[in-house]
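Reviewers of the previous submission asked for a worked example of the structure-prediction workflow described in the proposal, so we include one complete record here. The input consisted solely of the amino acid sequence. No template or homolog information was supplied to the procedure at any stage.
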Amino acid sequence: MKRTILNRLLAVSFIIAISILMLFPAILFAKQPNAVIGYTTFYSPESGPYVETYLAVDGSSLDFALNANNKFQASIQVLVLFHKNDEIVNYDKYELFSPELDDTLDLKFNFIDQQRYSLPNGEYNFEIQIWDKNTESKPFAILRPILIEFPEDKISMSGVQLVDSYESTQENSILNKSGYKIIPYPDYFYPEGMTKIIFYTELYNTDRVLGENEKYLINSYINDANSNAPIDKYVSYKKETAAEVNVVFNEFDISELKSGNYFVTVEARDRENRLFAKSQIFFQRSNPKIQLKLEDLLTIATQNTFAGKINDQDTLREYIRSLAPISDEQEKNFAAVHMTHADLETLQKYFYRFWKERDALDPEHAWLNYLNEVNKVNQAYSTLIEKGYETDRGRIYLQYGPPNAISESYNEPSAYPYEIWHYYVLDNGQRNKRFVFYTKDLVTNDFMLLHSDVSGELSNYRWQYVLYDRVDPGFNIDESTVPSSWGGNSTRYFDMPR
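From that input alone, the workflow returned the following structure tokens.
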């Protein structure tokens, strides 16, 4: 786990460093701790709802100093805040120490911290700030929304916790739950070297609602983040008996899972197969060894199919390019490498395979519905140099469907023109999600994605600083609040889209 998280952290750190170099050259050499932060919500029958937070820190990103034991040690200051309606309802501040070292020749390790915070049901913003106490660097902050919803008279399910390892235990520790010592996996990225994904969740009040000793079914599966379809190879079923708390502990072998964005989903269904509880968590998989190859298309027959009737290569290539917003990473890479110069038959085979995988019963109907949506975004969002499906707004529309509400603000005195899209429920079950787009020039019609709270999308909790950079290009990125500006509506539109 330590090496894999480190690789992920270093990759993310490199991307962040390049971005900082482009935007703020003056702070290029400011050192920041590299960390991965996660959380899960749970319920205790004795003490009520609580939030578990997980923090993994890359030792090589810290400064080590000699301590009182004449050992080298790093120290991280951690500030945790839970906001509700602009009020801090719970907080914590503590110091996290690395292991003691005799020297600092090899710092390729991570140290992990887990905490628990009691909070009543409600919606919160979870903020965590960390900084290296041995340097003068400013705090590095993360802000995430949290929904806690565990009604006492209804069945509910905890969040899904990703697990690095576990073992049975009777000892008392903050890492223990339901008789297991659980080492969390704070990251959401699974590199090629990791061959399994382990997850943990809990159900509450099934005995109260279904009746004591009543049987019900737990379905656990991995589903594609784009199509939301469960992957047949990664589905498990288990019968459970109703209880005050039911524990779901499961794992899947992901050695053959191709690169892409996914969810681990856990469902609870009654005897009539009616869904009464569901929880899921996003993760990314990198598995370069699993690749779509040209020879995989040889057995596909396109005679007498809709794809076989498309005989113009340029038209077919354009159709394949338009599939990018709903393609997984493997399909995008394959199309970029092989479809540019492929012959007509290969193009037809790939195109038919793509839609057959999405709708085995009627792939042509699925394609025509999608083509209709592509035509809409091309008309609405095309720019001087990009088709509509190539833009950020076009991609989001095609991937998630039309938003339920759009708040447009093109004339705020202090802000660049922007749009906030609001989705009540996404196909993958995420609720009350938003996308923020902005442009520096309305003439181009090129609105870029600035921020979203959707799992797997660009998340920039300082998005308002960029939006209001129009009148204050010298803003301080270390400030924690956005200065008020005359006519500013972005917070109101984000919280309550029109």
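The chain has four domains: 1-42+50-149, 151-289, 294-387, 403-495. We consider this example representative of the routine output the project will generate in years two and three.
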